[in-house]
Design goal:
CATH topology of the largest domain: Rossmann fold
Organism: Acidisarcina polymorpha
Largest sheet: 7 strands, mixed
Protein name: Inositol-1-phosphate synthase
GO molecular function, one term: inositol-3-phosphate synthase activity
Strand order of the largest sheet: 3-2-1-4-5-6-11
Domain Myo-inositol-1-phosphate synthase GAPDH-like: 260-372
Pfam family, one: NAD_binding_5
CATH architecture of the largest domain: 3-Layer(aba) Sandwich
Order of helices and strands: EHHHEHHHEHEHHEHEHEHHHEEEHEH
Number of domains: 2
Distance between the termini: 40 Å
Length: 452
């Protein structure tokens, strides 16, 4: 029997079906941590799409399709027509930020979207004003905010966040929280993260290893609210958070949106591995001029990002299985703050590969991308899919939503299980999960059924 809980959601083992997914009734409240370039691009984009001023390009939930049954059947509905996702017209935004600019002012400062485009939706954006944020400059050296919560200790700050969530819950039907804030300094798991009791004691004692992002994640879990982490911060990938996630039916997923250079890596590396082509070295460098670039100019914050970006190749290429091809890769990642570029990031890769009989070849990739334009649809998809997970028996109670690995540089998995970084396997996992919860046959791509 499903296990009931006060929120009205349930979880059990085994397959789910459409009858076990609660409908997306009412308003979906989205609480964004950090109303900077990514968040304002997301919010402005959703409103522009709702008004018919733009298309949701880059969003799998809005533009993607899913094949059902055999290829010969021609049954390929839009994902948003196949699973009961919240409608964009039902999304309500709020958030926290360390600056008191409203969303219009913040978007104008970020300079991601054209002024003319922002003016078309200016009244809507101006009406969204940030709540004071939990912030400590010790964890993000290059920022100095003014719209900051104060309290007697970190537990007090956590309770203030919980009060914000509770107040917002009264105005909407469901809530999802997404971190679009800055990259914090590199932290490693310690004893304070081992259990709920240890963490709560650490909150009372202002433990140095408890960063603001962890306080947000804790508040979300205590309130039974799904949480997505768009930065590489140590926040939900901790034992006590995973315990709270299961206890309070609050789905969690990976960390650090997979947008530019790492997105390309998770496309190319599987191709080299599929063809058994060796790799001698992979040098990656980035130039970026937005607030994220400024924060990452601090070595301690860059260390957090570097760890997230470096792990991708090892997991995809499995050098322990293919030592002749990938054992001795020289992998280097650099990020340089370059103000003239603003949000228009450039990711440059030099890849030294080798083929038949060991002969060397090279591949050069120069991706002149727009960081927030790539991140905004990821944030939208995660909000909608996490809300779906919260409403779905068989997903809600398992905590970690590995099927959302598709969107992250650092996917989350069950303890002891290596993460899957191959973009194409991640895509198959995501779509098969949607088929599974809707009671449809999984697609194996075996193809033998066409030749019986």
């Amino acid at each position: 029997m499903p296990t009931a809980n006060p929120s009205g959601y349930s979880a059990n083992e085994g397959a789910a079906s459409a009858s076990q997914i609660q409908p997306a009734k009412g308003k979906l409240g989205v609480m964004v941590v950090g109303l900077g370039a990514v968040a304002t691009t997301l919010i402005a984009g959703v409103e522009a799409i709702r008004k018919g001023l733009a298309k949701p390009i880059g969003s799998l939930t809005q533009m993607g399709t899913i094949r059902l049954g055999k290829r010969t059947e021609g049954n390929t509905p839009l994902i948003k027509d196949f699973v009961p996702l919240a409608d964009l017209n039902d999304i309500v935004f709020t958030g926290w930020d360390i600056f008191d600019d409203n969303v219009y002012e913040a978007a104008a400062h970020a300079k991601v979207l054209d002024k003319e485009q922002l003016e078309q939706i200016r009244p809507y954006l101006e009406a969204i004003k940030p709540m004071p944020a939990v912030f400590d400059q010790y964890y993000v050296k290059r920022l100095n905010g003014t719209n900051i919560k104060t309290g007697k200790n970190k537990m007090d700050l956590a309770n203030q966040l919980r009060a914000d969530i509770q107040a917002f819950k009264k105005t909407v039907s469901r809530v999802v929280i997404i971190w679009c804030g800055s990259t914090e300094i590199f932290l490693e798991p310690s004893e304070v993260h081992d259990s709920i009791a240890a963490f709560e004691k650490g909150l009372e004692e202002d433990h140095i290893n408890i960063a603001p992002s962890m306080i947000y994640a804790y508040a979300a879990m205590k309130e039974g609210v799904p949480f997505a982490n768009g930065a590489p911060n140590l926040s939900v990938d901790l034992p006590f958070i995973q315990e709270l996630s299961k206890e309070n039916f609050a789905p969690i997923c990976g960390k650090d949106f997979k947008t530019g250079q790492t997105f390309i890596k998770t496309v190319l590396a599987p191709a080299f591995k599929a063809r058994m082509l060796g790799i001698a070295g992979w040098y990656s460098t980035n130039i970026l001029g937005n607030r994220d670039g400024e924060v990452l100019d601090d070595p301690e914050s860059f260390k957090t990002k570097e760890e997230s970006k470096l792990g991708v190749l090892d997991f995809i290429l499995q050098p322990e299985l293919y030592p002749d091809l990938y054992k001795d890769i020289y992998h280097k990642v650099r990020i340089n703050y370059y103000p003239p570029r603003g949000d228009n990031k450039e990711g440059w890769d030099n890849i030294d590969i080798f083929g038949w009989l060991g002969y060397p070849m090279q591949i050069k990739v120069d991706f002149l991308c727009r960081d927030s334009i790539l991140a905004a649809p990821i944030a939208l998809d995660l909000v909608l899919f996490l809300d779906l997970a919260k409403r779905t028996t068989g997903l809600c109670g398992i905590g970690i939503q590995e099927w959302l690995s598709f969107y992250f540089k650092s996917p989350m998995t069950a303890p002891g299980l290596y993460p899957e970084h191959d973009l194409f396997i991640q895509s198959m996992k995501l779509k098969n999960t949607l088929r599974h919860i809707m009671g449809e046959e999984l697609i194996t791509h075996l193809g033998l059924e066409y030749y019986d």
